[in-house]
Amino acid sequence: MPIAVKGNISTVNLPTTCSSNILRDWVSPYDASVVKLLKDAGAIIIGKSNMDEFGMGAYGPTYNPVSFLNNSTNTDSLKNETSNRDLDTPTDDMFVPGGSSGGSAAAVAANFCLSALGSDTGGSVRLPASYCGVYGFKPSYGRFSRYGLVSYASSLDTIGILGNNLENTKTLYDLISSFDPNDATSVDFSSQSCSQERKDLEGITIGIPQEYYVDGLSQEMLECWSNGIKKLENSKAKIVKVSLPNTVNALSSYYCIASAEASSNLARFDGIRFGKRSEQPDLTEKHPLYSHTRTEGFGPEVQKRIMLGTFVLEASSYESYFGKATMIRNMIKEEFRTCFQKADILLTPATIGGAPTVSGIKINSNLEGGVSEYANDVFTVPASLAGLPALVVPFGAKKTTFNNRELQLPLGLQLISEFGNDELCFDVARFFNKTIL
Amino acid sequence: MAVVPKLNIVKNLTKRKVCIGLEIHATLKTKHKLFSNTINHSNINFKQNSNANLFDLGFPGSLPVINNEAVCQAIKASLVLNANVNKFSQFLTFYIYSYDLPLGYQITQKDHPIANYGFLDIMSGSKDFQSKVKKRISINQIQLEMDSAKSIQNNNYVYLDFNRSNQPVLEIVTNPTLESSDDTVSFLKLLLRELIHNELTITNIEQGTFRTDVNISLTDSLDKFGTRCEIKHLSSFNSIKQAIDFEIERQNKLLDNGVEVQHETRGFNEKTLETFLLREKEMDADYRFLPEPDLPIIEVSDRVIDTLRSELPESLQARRERLLSYGLSDYTVNVLMDQYKAVEFFEKCAKNRDKKKVANWMVGEIFRFLNENAAEAAGLGDESSFNENQESVMSLSMNDLPISAERLGEVIDLVDSEQVSALRGKNILRKILREKLTETPLQIAKDLGYIQMKIDLEEFNAIFEKIAAENYKQIERLKGKKNAKKSLKGFFMGKFMSETKGKLNPLDCDKFLEEKLDQN
Fold this sequence. Notes:
- Chain A: This is Glutamyl-tRNA(Gln) amidotransferase subunit A, mitochondrial.
- Chain A: The active site is at 6 (charge relay system), 100 (charge relay system), 124 (acyl-ester intermediate).
- The complex is a heterodimer of chains A (437) and B (520).
- Chain A is of the alpha/beta class.
- Chain A has helices at residues 33-40, 75-84, 102-109, 126-132, 166-176, 219-234, 247-265, 288-297, 300-313, 319-342, 358-368, 372-375, 381-386, 422-433; strands spanning 2-6, 44-49, 115-120, 135-138, 158-163, 205-209, 238-242, 345-349, 390-402, 405-417.
- Chain A has one domain (2-249, 311-433): Amidase signature (AS) enzymes.
- Chain A has a 10-stranded mixed sheet, sandwiched between helices.
- Chain B has 3 domains: 11-305, no CATH class; 312-447, no CATH class; 457-519, no CATH class.
- In chain B, the strands form 4 sheets. In chain B, strands 2-6-7-10-1-11-12-13-14 form a 9-stranded mixed sheet. A 3-stranded antiparallel sheet of chain B has the order 5-4-15, with no helix packed on it. In chain B, strands 3-16 form a two-stranded antiparallel sheet.
- In chain B, a hairpin with an 8-residue loop joins strand 6 (115-124) and strand 7 (133-146).
- Chain B is elongated.
- The model of chain B is unreliable at 10-14 and 380-394 (pLDDT under 50).
- The A-B interface holds A 9-10, 16, 18, 23, 26, 28-30, 32, 146-151, 153-155, 181-185, 260-261, 264, 266-270, 272-274, 287, 290, 310, 313-316, 318, 322 and B 54, 57-66, 93, 95, 97, 99, 102-105, 160, 284-285, 287-290, 293-296.
């Protein structure tokens, strides 16, 4: 099985750069636990996929293959299109793949491989899955070993899977679900129940979080969501309304915690033991080697989050920022717990809408100073904060025109289930594909 | 020993109350490092950067995994120090940008340490033993943390050795209840003795495995502390005493002149015996902590605590009482207890032997050898006596002694059974220690011709008659002397020894002559 691996997952024979200047050409001396499991199972790693630097970004590092395709997912058309286009001069009217595992999602969407490993901290697998029209899975925190994944925000980071269909996604899931003593946050789920073959969803209750009807939810996503609900209802699932009141606070909590942990995890990149070291440290400064190496090595988004994280951990701001963020996180966990007393699994949109274009992003970020990018994570971040398993299923599309062609811009729905009950996501997802008579 | 300039400790100035609090960092004795499975080598002679794995080097993607043994050792230390072991404890990351911290932070504990509220009782007071009183020194907190790499600065380069990186360190924080340098040193000695006795730390202070930061403040007020200064990285008891005495004097002078003491971090110069400014205390903003997300919270059950408590060896107090019950002197008990594993060695050797005799052999011979060895290793000519230099680091430990307890016992038996004289017995022991002879003590005694002759009365008489016949004139002359018996005895003794080539037990001979000369 050919598999692409995200650039922040360690592999001995390929560079692990995290798409950062500071790890340019860095080849890790060891394989990540998940990579080892895949290799042992006979998988072929076809390459490392591009990503937003250190996993920080929602738009992605590359172009969405949908930009090159007709409204079919035929590989031949891809070949024709790419041969006719000069890829070195991409245009701003192309679509983004979503971040940060955009490279992995694009590789799967373009049929370079059947599935890929990504990483998901606040939606980094699920968002690009939705934009690129592929499956994207984020496990219960602790199910997949993080050993060898270059940490961004340790308490939120998970390895994730992108797959061209549900079966391939599940195959990878089965291969890498393994307790790992090298990761102290690894959880042994081996005693948990396995996937069930169901003929319908009778007895399954689907929760629809009312707070996910957010302002700015696009018309086409709203339709997609309604269709999804109908589809499951037709499969005899029971639909209930549930409430997650702190959804509105999830983003702030997430960016506070993730930045704080990022400032911590990225502190080790000092140019001393590995990676880039600045050639010209100005010896008159207090920490010349650090400041030059890190200024040259980290991109602007990473620097922004390190500074934000450093600020929220300062003694004077700790309680009002990090302390509060942790409190909200606990409330969100509690709210989910309450939801799962009423419902077995939640169905939500994965994104606000379809993938934006590069030019669309540029206009927005000029208007809002780059913060609007963070809003893309609104549906994915809560499950990350609560450590819950979530699966994005491609479902429906937005019709649009691009280069005078009619185009189906993919949309995805998200299934969130209870901690440890990852398999239920797969079980329910099957019914999106089933034709109900 | 270097010449130590006399310190001017102005006693009448210390009218202000001195408050001393300590932060002690002791390297825990464990098989593996704190958060990785690298072997925890205490040996500094280990090749540089040869004992560090991916995590010890902070490589991307590597993760910490808590070493349970280190947690158990920390709990044991907490029990020894009479502290409350917390049901839950948590690690934090503490940010310091320093070349020797590969992660860019230290994993340590703060609000939820392994244990809180312990104490040790010391004998407080001056050197004058009579005026000593028992004093309880309270310990606020006992926590686990990782060590940094070792950095050596040389010609604008910083050399880093990551062998020490991630070694488990026990940090013990006392309340500011110590009031003098003497009490501080007594406390630290007792603490170190407890840690060593319970196999919680390794013995070598010189390798920086027992470091102390001292906080000192002076105050006139009864209910308010003065501004404190912290003296960093003191590793010997001598420098701790000297640094505290200097700092008390310095702060007193400042206060006498109406100058405020600044809250600052100071170092200690072992040559000038002065403390000096290292840096002004950082502002709050420089201290950043984050609950360590890579590590779970440690949960300790009562059952675990009970099990660990049962694994602790006999307490030092019980051990002291038992040794005293053998009739050993205070001094002997102190000497034995101050040397790691000496009591175990003693017990092994003294089993079925005269305990006092064995203790004398150990204090007199074994410890003399250890001291001489330490002095030679340190390149010192003089033999510093043991009790004045209890903190001096012996370069040979009991475990490295070239003699086992059993073999020492065999030497003692040779003397006890009068097979060799006491003097020659000591000679045999010295040869085993110095020349590393491996034969049995009995064989050595035979090879050296040290075995004393056992002869019966008949043989004694025969030799006596022979000497008397050969030295008739001389004997007659001696008989006429004032102290005839004594002179004769001396004369015969000499002749007996030369007849037997010195192998005769002089005591046996003396006894025989005493009776024989009385008869004649």
